[in-house]
Design goal:
With about 230 residues, the protein is α/β, with parallel strands linked by helices. It has one domain: Ribonuclease Inhibitor (Leucine-rich repeat, LRR (right-handed beta-alpha superhelix), Alpha-Beta Horseshoe). About 20% of the residues lie in helices and about 15% in strands. It is built from 3 helices and 9 strands, in the order ααββββββββαβ. Strands 1, 2, 3, 4, 5, 6, 7, 8 and 9 form a 9-stranded mixed sheet that branches. The longest helix is centred in the first third of the chain and has 29 residues. It starts with a helix and ends with a strand.
């Protein structure tokens, strides 16, 4: 009886896997996304570690505004690129307005690039991606960052330039491994006091309209003494 139950559970799991793959393939077919982006082979798709739409072969195709929740089943992904700015004259990829909460299931991710899209917010599940070392969110319409971003303890690069952020969460001070931070091009006028905890920064890009407190000015001076590049853009 136990052997039968194990067989039934395995059969059900394989059927469920096949169903979400077929839904993902249907989405890719609808948008003419090629096999070099989304493999149509079960084994290759299940073991995918690198998914990028940054390709000149993709240029000119229909941009997609939604990412299917099935993306969360690609749990072996380490690198996910959904947007990229090539230069001011040629910006392409997608027009994502949101990321599905299932993005938080991709716990092996180390790099997540979602630049040049139309995001207005991030799901709080972004905090589950604790292996992330790079998170690039420039050129979107983000009005805030979730406090859960403070859980990304291994993050080394965070770029949120050219968004609509009026403040940064206090939890940004938890990102003590951060080496690069870019926040220019936002309506920020102040930074959370906790930002002085980011003592490992080597590259810091701030907006010219940001008013720094005395401790923050001292923090900036310390960074410069440690050979960090600080720019006001």
């Amino acid at each position: 009886m136990q052997i039968i139950n194990l067989y039934d559970r395995r059969k059900a799991k394989l059927m469920e896997q096949r169903l979400w793959m077929e839904r993902l393939w249907a989405w890719a077919d609808l948008l003419d996304i090629k096999e070099y982006n989304v493999p149509r082979n079960e084994h290759e798709l299940f073991n995918l570690t690198h998914l990028s739409f940054e390709s000149y072969r993709y240029y000119g195709k229909d941009k997609f505004s939604e990412l299917p929740p099935e993306i969360g089943n690609l749990t072996k992904l380490k690198f996910l690129e959904l947007g990229h700015v090539v230069n001011c004259a040629m910006q392409f990829l997608n027009n994502l307005t949101e990321l599905p909460k299932e993005i938080g299931q991709l716990t092996e991710l180390t790099h997540l690039y979602v630049q040049d899209n139309s995001l207005t917010e991030l799901p709080k599940e972004i905090g589950n991606l604790t292996l992330l070392t790079e998170l690039k969110l420039g050129f979107n319409h983000l009005t805030n960052l979730p406090k859960e971003i403070g859980s990304l303890a291994k993050l080394e690069i965070l770029t949120v330039w050219q968004n609509e952020l009026k403040n940064l969460p206090n939890e940004i001070g938890n990102l003590r491994q951060l080496k690069g931070l870019s926040v220019w091009g936002n309506p920020l006028v102040e930074l959370p006091q906790e930002i002085v905890n980011l003592t490992e920064l080597k590259e810091l890009e701030l907006g010219r309209n940001i008013r720094l407190t005395a401790p923050q000015k001292e923090w900036i001076n310390e960074l410069k003494l440690n050979a960090a590049n600080v720019h006001y853009l």
